[in-house]
Amino acid sequence: MKKIIAFIIILFIAVGASSWLYFRNLTATTNNATKILNTVPSNAALVFQYKNEAYFYDIFKKFTLFKDVLGVATFVQLAQLKNILIDDAQLYASVDKSDLFFSLHKTANNKADFLVLAPLAQSFLNQYSTAKFLSLIKAKYTVNVNNFNSYEIYTVKLPSNKLFYFSLLQSIIVGSFNLNLVEETILQQTVANKLKTNQFNAETDRNKNAIANLYLSFAKLPDFLNNFSKYKNPEYTAYLKNFTAYASLNINYQSDAFMFSGITTPDTTTLQYANIFLYQQPGNLTLNRIIPLDAASYISFYVSDMRLFQSDLKLIFSQSDVFKKLKTQINAIAKKHSIPIEQEFLKVLGNEFGQTQLASGDKIGLISTNNSQRLAFLLSTISTPLSAKIARFDDTNFVYYFLGEPFKIFGRPYFAMVSNYLIVANSVKALNNFLAHYQQQQLISTTANYNKFEQYLSNKGNIFYFLHNKNSKAIFKDFLSKNAYHNFKSEAFKFDNIYGLSIQFSADKNKFYTNLYLNKLPQQTKTPSLSDSLYLDSLTHQNKN
Fold first, then answer.
1. Cα separations in angstroms, 392 against 246, 356, 395, 421, 531
2. Given CA atoms 516, 520, 524, 530 in this order, what sign does their dihedral have?
3. Which of these, 349, 354, 304, lies nearest to 465 by C-alpha position?
4. What are the CA-CA distances from residue 41 to residues 114, 117, 182, 199, 200 (Å)?
5. At what angle do helices 306-317 and 341-348 cross, to 10 degrees?
6. What is the pLDDT of residues 450-484, one digit of tens each?
7. How confident is the model at residue 205, as a pLDDT?
């Protein structure tokens, strides 16, 4: 009996000790990741993190999307860097089982580069100092040294004659093919900057156990994209342009796609459109079933409680004089037609609404209704018919008042009813084109490639954004600068291999569960077809009313 009791005591001690060691290592790993993310310069649009272990390289050995997206030149440089740091038997010990980080930054007009952050392995530091790592590098390669702001910056020439610059910030290797990025990182190590909280957040066990993680700063993405645009302040979708939030996502391996899932944390201290959906329940997203075949992109929103949505929307409007003006206008419409238009319109609004941009550049608004006949009657009192199917609002900003930012561009739109949806557009031509596609059932959801894409997505959420690569070619050409578009179309990149990109947000109080998905075209469909490609000159045919 005493032996049994002793065994049980030993067992409990063993379990307790192993648990303590696990969580201690877990905390150390998380703290290490946080430390490295805090080292990344604050203008980073994204950071990619992966485990420097053999199984990562084995899994992604035949994975081609990295090369397609990064470009051949960058991929070759990274391969040469891997040969130096990872494939060398002696140097590998210095970063064995460390997590490697790559952050992306704009460096000059139409140019971007990445920063590499590699913490020296704890097992290596237990035996050697950082000076040992430098001696190993110098023993194999010619290394030049320059002083900068009390730090040393080392220069290594790769086999391609490309220069790689790096420094040691405590026990973190910080390097780049762009010297300015290394210098900028060093400058950020001042006391004043160290006090600033980084935009990225390292999760705990979820990130620790993932083979790779992606950190996104939605607030920094527009500025990064603008760097490659011919316009100073180009338009984006109403949701993604003004979204202050960061995402922490884990990779889910798929051989022909990037698939990430995780958490997006918005800034809840400011009133922004996305935050309206935080306290809405996710629901079935069906708007994609009426998106036309020539859609370049679309964004859809789902609200479970329209009254709560309206209340939160008015708070955003209250930041300026917008609400007062809009409210006065709605009251004038109600008085003019002797109908409580606000109360009646809210009764017939459905749970979904959104916007699609066509390959021509035209934008279409889509709003679901729970009573199409009642809605048609209400709209007939505040509009002027142009044909049997199409009418136009008599007053401006009517839909914007009820649904906010995505409908701001539809000042006094034309509209039509399709099944249980209200469709709005700024031109009759765009609306007629949409109606023709719908009547002929030429819809993106009827294509094999979209159905293959959609099978990896959740059918529930609050916000869903989709970009169709080939249908967006004319829009890309109009958006990008000449140099950026030339690079985009060059053989250095394989963007033509990509079918589409989506990002989906499902609300949970103060955060969004997030899925990001980008996939390649199936090999058998690489030849452009009617269902998956449109002419680049389609922008010349758009109606810009």
1. 40, 19, 9, 16, 31
2. positive
3. 354
4. 11, 11, 9, 10, 11
5. 130
6. 999 998 888 899 999 999 999 999 988 888 998 88
7. 60
> What does the block give as tokens for 60?
């992604």
> 400: which 2 tokens?
């914007």
What type of residue is 116? V
In whole angstroms, give the CA distance from residue 345 to residue 137: 70
> What predicted TM-score, i.e. pTM, was given to this entire model?
0.86
Locate the DSSP E strands across 218-294. 245-251, 257-266, 283-284
What is the residue-wise DSSP string for 137-186? HHHHS-EEEEEETTEEEEEEE-TTS-EEEEEEETTEEEEESSHHHHHHHH
Strand partners, 298: 356, 466
Tokens of 402: 């009820």
Q: Kindly tell me the sign of the dihedral angle through the C-alpha atoms of 446, 449, 455, 459.
A: negative
Structure tokens at 373: 């006949």
List 189's β-bridge partners, or say none.
none
- Measure the CA–CA gap between 302 and 507, rounded to whole angstroms: 10
Q: Is the pLDDT of residue 302 over 50?
A: yes
Give 153-205 pLDDT, tens digit per residue: 999 988 778 899 999 998 899 999 999 999 999 988 765 555 555 567 766 56
Specify whether the CB–CB gap between 423 and 434 falls below 8 A: yes
Residues paired with 157 in a beta bridge: 163
Tokens of 269: 């201290």
> Is the distance from CB of 175 to CB of 116 less than 8 angstroms?
yes
Tokens 């596609």 label which residue?
437
Bridge partners of residue 405, in order along the sequence? none
CA 211 – CA 250 distance, rounded (Å): 8
pLDDT reading at 49 higher than 60? yes
Distance CA 40, CA 267 (A): 20
Tokens describing residue 154: 């080392």
Instruction: Give the separation between CA 423 and CA 347, rounded to whole angstroms.
Output: 18
Strands (E) in 267-419, as ranges, are: 283-284, 295-302, 349-358, 363-369, 383-385, 391-393, 414-418
* pLDDT confidence band for 3 (50 / 70 / 90): very low
